[in-house]
Amino acid sequence: MFRRTFWFTAGAAAGVWATAKVNRKLKQLAPESLAAQAADKAVEAGHRLKDFALDVRANMQQREAELGEALGLDAPQPEPGRELPAAHRPTALGPRTATSRTTPYSISYNRNEDH
Predict the structure, then answer these.
(1) Disulfide: which of 45, 68, 80, 85 matches 75 by Cβ 3.0-4.6 Å?
(2) pLDDT tens digits for the chain (115 residues)?
(3) What is the DSSP string of the chain?
């Protein structure tokens, strides 16, 4: 009797565990989840690219200063407004509101008017 109860409980627990795991994987593979993951990765890649551009610009200015000193030239100072804007890292897909679904166009397009 104890053996049957043990195996019944073990089977039920394995079924619950497997069902939860399958449901979790299905949620990960849903189109909305995949789109959010892709958008997050694209935003992250954009920030890395911006950081790379900032590093290139800083190193370029440093190297120009070194070459200017070596050649005896006065290195021009960078203009104050020429820096890249500060990092802004919003979430890729935020909550949707009623205003986000409206179009900026108020004129409807009728295909039959073209003929």
Answers:
(1) 68
(2) 889 999 999 999 999 999 999 999 999 889 888 999 999 999 999 999 999 999 999 999 999 999 988 888 875 566 666 666 666 666 666 555 555 555 555 566 666 665 5
(3) -HHHHHHHHHHHHHHHHHHHHHHHHHHHTSHHHHHHHHHHHHHHHHHHHHHHHHHHHHHHHHHHHHHHHHHTPPPPPPPGGGSPPPP----SS----GGGGS-S--S---GGGG-
Instruction: Name residues whose C-beta falls within 8 Å of residue 92's C-beta, 6 or more positions apart in sequence.
Output: 36, 39, 40, 42, 43
pTM (2 d.p.) = 0.44
Q: Report residue 28 as tokens.
A: 């990960």
